[in-house]
Input
Amino acid sequence: MMKKKQLATTAKEKESVRNKLAVTAEKLRLKAKQLATTAKEKESVRKKLAVTAEKLRLKAKQQNKIETKLKESEVRYRRLFETGHDGILILNSQTGQITDVNPFLKKLLGYSKSEFLNKKLWEVGAFKNIKASREAFKIFKKGGHLRYEDLPLETKSGQSIEVEFVSNSYMVGETLVIQCNIRDITERKKLELVKETDRLLEEERLKVASIADATHELRTPLAIIKGNVDLAMQNKSKNPKPPRSALRAINYEIKHLSNILSDLTLITSKKGELQNRIVYDKVNLRSLVTVVVGRCKAIAYKKNISITARKIPSLIILGDKVYLEKMLANLINNSIVYGNKNGHTEILAEESKGFIIISVTDDGIGISKEDLPHVFERFYRADKSHSSDGNSIGIGLGLSIVKWVAEAHGGKVSAKNIKNKGSVFSVSLPIKADNTQ
Output
C-alpha cells in the first residue's frame, strides 16, 4: 500500500516537471521566435542603412561634381572677368555701391580699383553724366534692364569716349547681383561716321552727275525752241515753217522741259515739302492703269514691245491721280528701256491683306547683282550698257520717283530678277477707300 502511494507521488512529481519543462520550452520557442523577428528587423534596418549610406555616397559624389563644376565655372567667370575686352562693374543691390571692377575698365577709364570700390556709380567721375543715375538704380533694384546705346564717358585724364552701357540684375543664390557691362564703341562710332560721310559724298557725287545729265538733256529742247523761234522771226517769204507750227513745236518742248524740271524738283525737295503736294481723291485703279498703258504704248512702239494689263480689279484707292500716273508710267517706261526688242511687258494687280500689289514684269535682260540693291536710291543710275539697246536711259530719277510716290501714299516698293525671264518691279499701296460697288 505504502509503495503504491510512493509511486503515485513520484508520477505526480514527474508530471509536474514535464509541465514545467513544457512551459519552459514554450517560453524558449517564443523567445526564439522573438529573437528571429528582431534579427529580421535588424537585417531590414541594416539594409535600409546600407541603401541610405549608398544614397549618401552618391549624393556626396554628386555634390562633389557640382562643387567641382561651380569651381570651374567660377574660374571661367573670373578669367572672363579679368581678361574680357569689355568693362564690367558689380554693384551691391541694396546700397548701389561698386563691389568689383575688372582690369579692362580700370585701364579704359584710368581709375584705380580703390577709386571704384565702395563708391556709388554716380560718385565715380567717369559716370557723373549718366542721366538720372539714382532713378536708374531703382530700375536695377527691381530686377529691370537698363541700356544706353551711346553714352559719353569721361576718363580720369578728361578724355571723352563713347560707350554702350548695359546692366542686368540677377540672383546668385539668395543674393541679387547687379552687373554693368561697358563696351568702348569709340572706334565703331568713328567708322560709322566715315561710312556716313562716304555715303553722303557718294550721294552728292551722284546728285551732281544727275543734275549734269539733266542740264545736258535741257539743252536739246532749248535748242529746238531757239531754232523754232529763229524760224518764226524770219521773213514770211523765206520761212519754211508757219508760225503756228513753230509754236506747236515750242509748246511740246516746253512741256518736255517742264517734266524734267518737275522730276528734278520732286527728287531734290525735302520729304515734308513733297508730302504737302499730295491731293487725295478716289482713283479707279483699272481706269488709271488703262490710261497709263495707252500713253506708254507710243514709247514701246519703237522696240515693238507689247504691253498687257491682266487681272486689274475695278477697285477704288485713295491717292493723288497725277502722281500715281507718274509712278506707273515710270515703272512701265523702265520695263521698256530694259526690255528686249519684240518683247513683252505685263501689268498685274492683286489684293493682299488690305493692300493692292501692282507688279510690272518684263522679259528683258534683268537687273545686275550690283545694281539690284540700289535701283530705288536717289540719283542712282544703272550702267547704260545694261539697257537692252545700249541707248541712254535718262537721268536716273524714274525709280526714285516711283519709290517716293509709293511711300507718300503709305506703300512700299520692291524689285527682283526672274531667272532667264527679266525682272519684276512691284508697288504695294494701301486700300483706304470703300470699294463696294
Q: What stands out?
A: The two ends are 146 Å apart (CA to CA). The chain has ten helices and twelve strands. The chain has four domains: 1-79, 84-184, 192-268, 279-430.
